[in-house]
């Protein structure tokens, strides 16, 4: 039976073209090939569905056709070894780095890493997720982060080109005019992009590096950054999953 | 701890818990069914939101846990790492039924993520029974096995699926999860009489039922769980109802999933039928 199961599995997953023998099939399907094609199609669809669900931003960015091609090429090189179908995508970002799509869209792997981080943070969370409660008035606050529910996109590529087709969007001009600094994260199944000005970016990076709020603010003052809108900045951070202030 | 799911000779209605229903549950929407079935694999690797919702739901409802990766008919050995995780999930949720499918899903640690048939021979019967005994001993409880919808079969089969599952239940003390839709789909595809299947089944082993819908692909029926219950299946339910005692019937809906109340309505069609019989 071992050999039989190997033959069937290899055929369904596209690793072999040798049609297994001794099968009975529905009469209307006319051949065992047509029967096994049902499973081949389902196997292909599983990759598309799971990767689509867990790498939604990559899918949205690439569109259906290209994303399907990416999934197909991943499936051809990737054997699923886990009982949990969601594990299919754990190596997807690394696969993208070595694919032709990475040449075309240099930040695609970054985006996939973000999706993976969000997946690990939410669907695979090992602890209950706490929502952010930021109250800039409190003095003894410390910023804590949970895993990597968000990432800084710091590829050499001009990130704003992402939105170049959305130039009629009101926010676009504002984003484009900013120096740098984009925090990308997912909340309520939406991919959100939060632009920061230079001072804010400096502050947030300092906080993410583990400094306490007072220390981070101190650092900004030291380098003479404009923090006149500190309260607003903290307000902006509110609601970013995995980023929250705790009292110490 | 919640006790009996339903009283003697009452119909109890369940639906499959899906993420699409989480907002309804979190917002304390009205729930009319008696119990839920959750897919074990969706909860064994997380303690985040899905798990929290399941735990919360368990405070008010009995839960059945249904797996898709046990791989009982595979030539591979049991995956004890997976079973350990299942076991700890069972300890927290205390399900009233635990089940998986009478099939294989992978071989040599390589997964198809599909439910595949195998040759129902005497030799394989012996092999699977030994595996189930090991499984039930390790887990400390009996499992129910669901009949499959399959699009190929094996020339060397010596048993029908109904005979095979009867035999397994007799030998190992395991139970059956009877999926009416799967019986119907296979019977239509392989040009057999679905009622013959139900005549062969020993209903004393049946602890839970599934009802769902299929898609007509022209050359074959496909078990898609993508809509409400077809009249053919309601007719079948009517015919087998006299054999059922206290049926625990679950509506499965996995594609184009509507709101929770609409899924509930489907299983209530069978419930009202039962009450009129
Ligand atoms: Fe089922």
Write up what this structure looks like.
The complex is a heterodimer of chains A (248) and B (277). Chain A folds into two domains: 1-124, no CATH class; 128-248, no CATH class. Chain A contains eleven helices and six strands. Chain A is 48% helix and 11% strand. Chain A has helices spanning 2-12, 32-54, 56-62, 64-77, 92-97, 100-104, 108-123, 170-177, 198-208, 213-222, 230-237, and strands at 23-24, 141-145, 150-152, 182-187, 190-195, 243-247. In chain A, strand 4 and strand 5 (190-195) form a beta hairpin. In chain A, strands 3-4-5 form a three-stranded antiparallel sheet, covered by helices on one side. Chain A has a two-stranded antiparallel sheet with strand order 2-6. Chain A is mainly alpha-helical. Chain B has 277 residues and is an alpha/beta fold. Chain B has one domain: Divalent-metal-dependent TIM barrel enzymes (TIM Barrel). Helices cover 38% and strands 19% of the residues of chain B. Chain B is built from nine helices and 13 strands. In chain B, helix 4 crosses helix 5. The longest helix of chain B is centred in the middle third of the chain and has 18 residues, at 122-139. The mean pLDDT of chain B is 93. Chain A binds chain B through residues 1-2, 4-6, 8-9, 12-13, 22-30, 32, 34-36, 38-39, 42-43, 46, 79-86, 121-129, and chain B through 41, 44-50, 52, 69, 71, 74-75, 79, 82, 104-114, 116, 118-119, 124, 127, 151-157, 189-191, 219-220, 222. Strand 1 (23-24) of chain A pairs antiparallel with strand 8 of chain B, so a sheet runs across the interface. Fe (ii) ion (FE2) binds at residues 146, 179, 210, 252 of chain B. Residues 146, 179, 210, 252 of chain B line the site of fe (ii) ion (FE2).
């Amino acid at each position: 039976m071992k050999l039989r199961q190997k033959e069937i599995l290899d055929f369904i997953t596209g690793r072999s073209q040798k049609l297994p023998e001794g099968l009975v099939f529905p009469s209307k399907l006319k051949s065992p090939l047509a029967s096994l094609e049902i499973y081949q199609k389902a196997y292909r669809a599983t990759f598309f569905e799971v990767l689509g669900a867990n790498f939604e931003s990559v899918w949205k960015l690439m569109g259906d056709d290209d994303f399907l091609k990416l999934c197909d090429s991943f499936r051809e090189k990737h054997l699923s070894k886990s009982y949990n179908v969601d594990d299919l995508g754990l190596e997807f970002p690394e696969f993208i780095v070595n694919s032709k799509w990475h040449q075309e869209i240099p930040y695609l792997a970054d985006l996939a890493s973000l999706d993976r981080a969000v997946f690990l943070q939410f669907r695979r969370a090992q602890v209950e997720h706490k929502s952010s409660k930021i109250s800039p008035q409190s003095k003894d606050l410390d910023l804590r982060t949970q895993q990597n529910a968000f990432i800084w996109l710091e590829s050499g590529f001009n990130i704003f080109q992402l939105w170049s087709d959305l130039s009629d969007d009101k926010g676009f001009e504002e984003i484009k005019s900013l120096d740098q600094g984009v925090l990308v994260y997912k909340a309520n199944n939406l991919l959100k992009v939060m632009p920061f000005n230079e001072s804010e970016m400096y502050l947030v990076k300092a906080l993410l590096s583990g400094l306490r709020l007072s220390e981070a603010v101190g650092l900004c003052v030291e380098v003479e950054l404009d923090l006149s809108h500190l309260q607003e900045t903290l307000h902006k951070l509110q609601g970013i999953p995995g980023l929250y202030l705790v009292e110490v | 701890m919640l006790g009996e799911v339903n009283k003697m000779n009452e119909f109890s209605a369940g639906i499959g818990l899906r993420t699409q229903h989480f907002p309804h549950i979190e917002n304390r929407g009205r729930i009319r069914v008696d119990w839920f079935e959750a897919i074990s694999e969706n909860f064994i690797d997380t303690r985040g939101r899905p798990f929290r919702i399941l735990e919360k739901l368990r405070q008010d409802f009995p839960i059945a846990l249904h797996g898709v990766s046990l791989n009982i008919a595979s030539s591979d050995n049991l995956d004890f790492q997976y079973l350990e995780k299942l076991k700890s999930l069972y300890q927290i949720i205390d399900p009233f039924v635990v089940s998986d499918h009478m099939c294989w899903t992978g071989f040599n640690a390589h997964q198809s993520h599909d439910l595949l048939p195998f040759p129902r021979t005497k030799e394989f019967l012996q092999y699977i029974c030994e595996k189930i005994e090991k499984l039930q001993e390790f887990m400390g409880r009996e499992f129910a096995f669901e009949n499959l919808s399959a699009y190929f079969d094996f020339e060397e089969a010596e048993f029908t699926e109904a005979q095979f599952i009867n035999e397994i239940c007799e030998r190992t003390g395991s139970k059956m999860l009877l999926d009416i839709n799967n019986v119907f789909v296979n019977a239509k595809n392989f040009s057999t009489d679905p009622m013959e299947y139900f005549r062969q089944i020993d209903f004393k082993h049946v602890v839970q039922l599934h009802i769902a819908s299929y898609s007509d692909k022209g050359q074959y029926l496909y078990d898609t769980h993508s809509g409400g219950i077809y009249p053919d299946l309601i007719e079948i339910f009517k015919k087998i109802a006299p054999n059922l005692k206290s049926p625990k019937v679950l509506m499965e809906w996995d594609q184009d999933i509507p709101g929770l109340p609409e899924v509930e309505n489907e299983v209530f069609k069978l419930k009202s039928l039962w009450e009129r019989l």
